[in-house]
Amino acid sequence: MEVRPVDQGTCDSCGLGADDLAPVDRVYLAPDESGELGPAETVLEVEHWCGSCRAHYPHVPAEGERRVTP
Fold first, then answer.
1. How would DSSP label each residue in 38-55?
2. What are the residues facing 28 on neighbouring strands?
3. Most buried residue, 2, 15, 59, 69, by CB count within 10 Å?
4. pLDDT digits over 8-60, tens only?
5. Residue 63: which region, alpha, beta or left (left: phi > 0; alpha: psi -120 to 50)?
6. Is 29 strand, coil or helix?
7. Where are the domains of the chain?
């Protein structure tokens, strides 16, 4: 299935209704040996996030042919 933007619906991150949803992959951060935060894991399940969540939480745009979670 191809990853496509969704115009409106419910944000998979915050749960609020939004009209600016975009497909993303969630990124978890973890401190390295010096205490600096960096990417530790990217979850390759497409979620649809609103603009506010995309502005505040680590993620990467979901692209290409992938499984889209309902």
1. EEEEE--SBEEE-HHHHH
2. 41
3. 59
4. 789 999 999 999 999 999 999 999 999 999 888 888 889 999 999 999 999 99
5. beta
6. strand
7. 9-61
- CA–CA distances in Å: residue 36 to residues 5, 23, 26, 29, 40: 33, 27, 19, 10, 12
* Burial per residue of 40-55, b for 16 or more beta-carbon CB atoms within 10 angstroms, e otherwise: eeeeeebbbbbeebbe
Q: Which helix (H) or strand (E) holds 23?
A: strand 22-31
Tokens representing 19 are: 């009209």
CB 21 within 8 A of CB 28: no
23 with 46: CB under 8 angstroms? yes
